[in-house]
């Protein structure tokens, strides 16, 4: 019996050993953007746990692009050696190391969740947030500064420099974060983009910044390195970004050399009404895969081996990304293999704990 979840996935010149990815998750555990022992143990455990791909947390391409002062960063060459340590460990234990490159846009300069998650004033070490338009995320938040064309060029340059550093650090997969109401998503959605220049208004104009960054990232990556883009496939709000827009965007991204669209939703407006439940975002991955003929990743409340298997086996998505379930259980892939009857290698150090087949 073949188990779809444990079949390899080839994207360009790279083969993942299975279809389970660690979804990018901020750890809010950095000082000045540097990685440390927390990241090594956290990511290392998930590599040992058997994930095929680990996409490390939203990693800021500039200090002003951080969600919080505690975010991981990649705006300095000095960030590279610490990241190298992470990629070397993940790779040595069979997980492909990927990185999510990010700019928080108007959601920048907040405190970490366990410090309240509120706006950090400049007097408290915060900084002015930038965005396509001076539209605040919530009514109680300050309006962000509108990026001028020079500011947009800086964002593009920051993503280029970050990509080169990510390659030097040993990442084999780059994911651009264009979801959850951060900078690229803010440009995509008419709810947050009210520009009247070449970066606002029409669909072509709203996707322009993301497409330009995709083009320059693709140019910098070796031909066999996959490029992923995470999108919010809908704003779940009248007048916002829609699933139709996502299909149209995915069709463009495919022509620009994107290999997989990672399909999340929401995050651009606080008041969206979202029908949260098991596998609730999977239909978006399925539709984009079918209508844009591009590989997709499904994410969001996928918590069981049976559901993950079903999603891949029925062609709803090529990859499943798990967030919180992999926080609860770093060994989810090893447990899922056991449950589904797939033969996978356990780390040598743990082989004596491997359940025996009857
Ligand atoms: C997240 N999520 C997230 N998403 C993203 O694109 N970049 C990020 O850095 C983060 N950070 C983050 C931190 C933490 C602690 C959590 C729980 C979540 C969202 C995450 O990747 C995933 O899309 C959602 O959690 C839904 O998947 P699960 O958790 O239901 O499997």
TrEMBL record:
Keywords: Flavoprotein, FMN, NADP, Oxidoreductase
Pfam families attached to this UniProt entry: Oxidored_FMN
InterPro entries: Aldolase_TIM, OxRdtase_FMN_N, YqjM-like
Residue ranges of every copy of the NADH:flavin oxidoreductase/NADH oxidase N-terminal domain listed in the record: 5-340
Gene Ontology MF annotations: FMN binding; NADP binding; NADPH dehydrogenase activity
Cofactor(s) demanded: FMN
Keyword Kinase in record: no
Protein name in the entry: NADH:flavin oxidoreductase/NADH oxidase
Organism of provenance: Hymenobacter oligotrophus
């Amino acid at each position: 019996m073949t188990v779809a979840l444990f079949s390899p996935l080839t994207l360009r010149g790279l083969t993942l050993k299975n279809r389970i990815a660690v979804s990018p998750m901020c750890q809010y555990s950095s000082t000045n953007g540097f990685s440390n022992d927390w990241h090594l143990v956290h990511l290392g455990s998930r590599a040992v746990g058997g994930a095929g791909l680990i996409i490390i947390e939203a990693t800021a391409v500039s200090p002003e692009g951080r969600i919080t002062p505690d975010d991981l960063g990649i705006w300095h060459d000095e960030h590279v050696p610490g990241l190298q340590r992470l990629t070397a460990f993940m790779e040595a234990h069979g997980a492909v190391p990927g990185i999510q490159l990010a700019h928080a846009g108007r959601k920048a300069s907040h405190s970490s969740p366990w410090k309240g998650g509120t706006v950090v004033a400049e007097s408290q070490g915060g900084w002015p947030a930038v965005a396509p338009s001076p539209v605040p995320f919530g009514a109680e938040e300050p309006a962000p500064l509108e990026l001028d064309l020079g500011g947009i060029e800086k964002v593009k340059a920051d993503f280029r420099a970050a990509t080169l550093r990510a390659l030097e650090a040993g990442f084999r997969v780059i994911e651009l974060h264009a979801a959850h109401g951060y900078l690229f998503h803010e440009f995509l959605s008419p709810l947050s983009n009210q520009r009247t220049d070449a970066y606002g208004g029409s669909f072509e104009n709203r996707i322009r910044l993301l497409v330009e960054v995709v083009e320059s990232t693709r140019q910098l990556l070796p031909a066999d390195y996959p490029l992923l883009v995470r999108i919010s496939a809908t704003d779940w709000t009248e007048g916002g970004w829609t699933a139709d827009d996502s299909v149209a965007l995915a069709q463009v991204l495919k022509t620009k050399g994107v290999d997989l669209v990672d399909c999340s939703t929401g995050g651009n407006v606080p008041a969206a009404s979202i029908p949260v439940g098991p596998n609730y975002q999977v239909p978006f991955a399925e539709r984009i895969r079918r209508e844009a003929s591009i590989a997709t990743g499904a994410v969001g409340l996928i918590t069981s081996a049976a559901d993950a298997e079903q999603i891949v086996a029925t062609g709803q998505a090529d990859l499943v990304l798990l967030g919180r379930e992999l926080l609860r259980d770093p060994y989810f892939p090893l447990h899922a293999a056991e449950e589904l009857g797939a033969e996978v290698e356990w780390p040598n150090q743990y082989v004596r704990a491997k359940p025996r087949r009857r």
